């Protein structure tokens, strides 16, 4: 049986022996910052320079070993374009972790981080963990957002921070693994050191649940 912790942090699927936990992770941020590229690099180890803007939402699954557990990651790639915001925020509530991405060559994408953070607070669980990623760090010559600014903002928002490159495969795996680790840390904090596999009801929300609050447009 799954525990109350599972209810908050992901379902422990007793019917599927291939993994111990399933974590739902969302990648969010302005259009063209590289969310889809980041996911493709992580899941398929591929990269394409072509820009095909995401329509709505899509996901990929990857199972990793972490802390002696097989963790199935269901990674949702959201459209950054404002017109899809109502659809994408509907998926926030079931997520245990967020990768909030901006593009280090695009000031506007960085300026919108605060708004994205507000969206997370509005639509997700209180315990959802967030990691800020400054993507396209391979484009040093076109850098507009200094690494220190990213780090400072992450500190201010209480997020961890990485600069990444989907193109050159810099910090991609590390970003996902760190996010998984902080989700696991939060999980053990909440269980107060007790057995996270202890029996209890499995009542976690499903991905198809709709947010209770009405949609508010992001300024981005
Ligand atoms: P939406 O789906 O519209 O929200 O955009 P997105 O955030 O998914 O952006 P996408 O991954 O489609 O990438 C946008 C463009 O940036 C594409 O042309 C990618 O090839 C390019 N790109 C993505 N990541 C990187 C990176 O790390 N470095 C460089 N140089 N280009 C990148
Ligand atoms: Mg995309």
Automatic annotation (TrEMBL):
- CDD domains, per this entry? Rab3
Q: What is the membrane topology noted in the UniProt record heading this document? A: Lipid-anchor
What is the role of this chain? The small GTPases Rab are key regulators of intracellular membrane trafficking, from the formation of transport vesicles to their fusion with membranes. Rabs cycle between an inactive GDP-bound form and an active GTP-bound form that is able to recruit to membranes different sets of downstream effectors directly responsible for vesicle formation, movement, tethering and fusion.
This one is known as Ras-related protein Rab-3
Lipoprotein: is it a keyword of this entry?
yes
GO CC term, one of those recorded: plasma membrane
Family of the protein in this entry: Belongs to the small GTPase superfamily. Rab family.
The UniProt GO MF terms for this protein read: G protein activity; GTP binding
Where is region (Disordered) located? 190-220
- InterPro entries in the record, alphabetically? P-loop_NTPase, Rab3, Small_GTP-bd, Small_GTPase, Small_GTPase_Rab
Q: Which SUPFAM superfamilies match?
A: P-loop containing nucleoside triphosphate hydrolases (SSF52540)
Q: Which reaction does it catalyse?
A: GTP + H2O = GDP + phosphate + H(+)
Per UniProt, subcellular location reads as:
Cell membrane
Q: Which GO terms describe its biological process?
A: intracellular protein transport
Task: List the keywords (alphabetical).
Answer: Cell membrane, GTP-binding, Lipoprotein, Membrane, Methylation, Nucleotide-binding, Prenylation, Protein transport, Transport
Which superkingdom, per the lineage?
Eukaryota
Q: Which NCBIfam families match?
A: small_GTP (TIGR00231)
Q: What is the lineage of its organism?
A: Eukaryota, Metazoa, Chordata, Craniata, Vertebrata
